[in-house]
Amino acid sequence: MLGYFITLIHAVLLCITILVLAIVVFLPILVFFLPQYTQFIFFLNFRRLPNTDYNDLASNDVKGIGRSLHLRGGGGKIGVWHVLPHKLNLEWRAEGRHPTDADFDRMMNDSDYKIILYAHGNSFDRTFYHRVEMYNLLSERNFHVICFDYRGYGDSEGTPTEKGIVADARTVYDWVREKCGKTQVIVWGHSMGTGVSCKLVQDLSIEHKAPCGLVLESPFNNLKDAVTNHPIFTVFCWMNDFMVDTIIIRPLNSVGLSMQSDKRIAKISCPIIILHAEDDKILPLKLGRALFEAARRADRDIKMREFSTDLGFGHKFICRSPELPEIIDEFVRYVSPSSSSSS
Ligand SMILES: *[C@@H]1O[C@H](CO)[C@@H](O)[C@H](O)[C@H]1NC(C)=O
């Protein structure tokens, strides 16, 4: 009997070992031959929560008054949320009716309240709880918050590629600019969204249409460093640098996935601030510092704010910093010294 169990345990352990080895060896080979189809490992857009109502902001814990709308992009329908600044929430609550789309559009063209366009990170969608925490904080600070799902995320149609998700961010940005008149716009990226934001704002800078500021929360410098510093990547430690480049990075680059923020940031013309926690285990602080250094070398207007390990913010929770409201207000005063009425 005992001998039987030992044999069984040996068999199970052998199976697990073979499976792990298969993944560790097979996955890079799959990326090498099929980069187009293995990109999803980076985007993780298939991760979503069941029973999400994308049209009901309150059911997703958004505190302010907001609207859900859909724009058309190159990949199809793009799901967008617009959350009002706190003071306007109070006015509408006092008025006792929900604003119409025309009301929302009109409020975007009111330069007392700046607009933050939020580009989220990979996996899940714009309804994910720590993102909603950030929208609530920004709305509380009297910003309009515009957030959206890239193609293939949330209720947005299509399949993500780097080019595609940047194009979606551009579609939403252009829509904001069309509505907002002279209202100032700040672009905010988190995690993968910092890669999207750097490309978006680089393109806008080249076209002399840059927003008034760029916030990069928990960013990274490029695809290779993001991938090789990810905790999961330790199982691929059998590959040397040449193999990583040849088997993983170059094939992904060849299908347009490169996220070269360290190159793109050099052409960004607006002020930038990086927010990064020391205990970020997904995109370690050194990646944010490398991006900061790349901007400094190109003589960009950039600041960096680091949050110490004992605060425990990690990759997702800089939104919980009691200092964050003041950091944002200070950055906004800096990027638009003339208009500080809304704070
Ligand atoms: C914004 O408001 C100004 C002043 O009322 C108006 O002239 C302008 O056309 C409006 N812009 C948009 C995009 O609605």
Automatic annotation (TrEMBL):
Q: Which residues cross the membrane?
A: 6-34
Task: Classify the source by domain of life.
Answer: Eukaryota
GO annotation, biological process: monoacylglycerol catabolic process; phosphatidylserine catabolic process
Keywords assigned: Membrane, Transmembrane, Transmembrane helix
Q: Does the keyword Transmembrane apply?
A: yes
Q: Which GO terms describe its molecular function?
A: monoacylglycerol lipase activity; phosphatidylcholine lysophospholipase activity
State the GO CC annotations: endoplasmic reticulum membrane
| Residue ranges of every copy of the AB hydrolase-1 domain listed in the record | 116-204
On whether NAD is a keyword of this UniProt record, the answer is no
Pfam families, sorted: Abhydrolase_1
Query: PANTHER family annotated for this entry?
Result: ALPHA/BETA HYDROLASE DOMAIN-CONTAINING PROTEIN (PTHR12277), FI04476P (PTHR12277:SF194)
Please report the name of this protein according to its UniProt entry.
2-arachidonoylglycerol hydrolase ABHD12
* Taxonomic placement: Eukaryota, Metazoa, Ecdysozoa, Nematoda, Chromadorea
